[in-house]
Amino acid sequence: MAGTDQRRRQLAREKFERQQQRRVEARQKAKRRNVIIASVLAVVVAAGGAAWAVGGLSNDDNDSKSDTAAPATTPPASPEPTEAASPEPKITIDKTAKYVMSLKTNVGEIAVAMDAAKTPSTVNSFKSLADKKYFDNTKCHRLTTQGIFVLQCGDPKGDGTGGPGYTIPDENLKSLGKPAADGSVTYKAGTVAMANTGQPHTGGSQFFLVYKDTKLPPTYTPFGTLDPASLKIVDTVAKAGVEGATGDGAPKKAVTVQKATVDKL
Question: Is the distance from CB of 129 to CB of 205 less than 8 angstroms?
Fold first, then answer.
């Protein structure tokens, strides 16, 4: 009897250890799959050649905070996002129409022109979220002024870790053109594109506004364009710099989206 009990305890212990190992492997797999706002590349010229450095245009859905103080040439900390809990919204927009996303902010009105024929899932998602007041009273949490030149918004948590609970597919990437020898393409000033986790088809609600030509890998859906007045507003925010005098972090001139709407033209 004693031998039988000992064998049972051994089997139970081995089962528990296998379960623990599977949990650890699952967490590690999820973390690898969801490396934050996509590994962003910034060109650094040194020793007569170009070297790539990783930064983050991230789109996380997690309670832990990302390191937004690191410069674009240093990899930021990567919180582990949770899995998407729901499907993307059903398409209800007119796929043949053009739309405008209007962001009423404390620093001025920012208008983003969007073409549903090129990015139907992205436009539909923004329309759905805006109609639910998802973006209202949120802040643009990240400004980058070194290596890449973007203002990032769309996170309801305001710290780079928020998302809508679903992901949308990548779209319109071919419009970026053929990558250069270093694998980069140029996102022109005035481009508005989706952030992601570094893996295909992982856009959520976070997006970035390019205020100066920026070299990135062609993995971020370009879905909109700023008009000249809106680009000037973003450029003014960029010129004010980043908190802590770093090249990557919260903008010193805080930007709050007071109200967001998406309307058919």
Answer: yes
User: What are residue 52's DSSP bridge partners?
Assistant: 43
Structure tokens at 223: 């879905």
**172-177, Cβ contacts within 8 angstroms, sequence gap of 24 or more:** 172/118, 172/119, 172/221, 172/222, 172/223, 173/218, 173/219, 173/221, 173/222, 175/118, 175/222, 176/218, 176/222, 177/218
The pair of structure tokens assigned to 206 is 């976070």
**Does an H or E element contain 214, and which?**
strand 214-216
Report the 3 state secondary structure along 141-153. Answer: CEEECCCCCEEEE
Q: Are 55 and 144 in contact (CB under 8 A)?
A: yes
The DSSP code for 245 is: G
248-249 and 39-46 strand pairing: unpaired
Beta carbons within 10 angstroms of residue 4's beta carbon: 8
pLDDT tens digits, residue range 126-176? Answer: 999 999 999 999 999 999 999 999 999 999 999 999 999 999 999 999 999
User: Scanning the structure block, which residue is given the tokens 């690898």?
Assistant: 32
Q: In sequence order, which ranges of the chain are alpha helices (DSSP H)?
A: 2-33, 120-131, 228-240
Tokens of residue 119, six digits: 């990015």
Centre a 10 Å sphere on the Cβ of residue 100 and count the other Cβ atoms it contains. Answer: 15
pTM over 0.90? The answer is: no
Q: Are 78 and 92 in contact (CB under 8 A)?
A: no
What whole-number distance in Å separates Cα of residue 199 and Cα of residue 123?
20
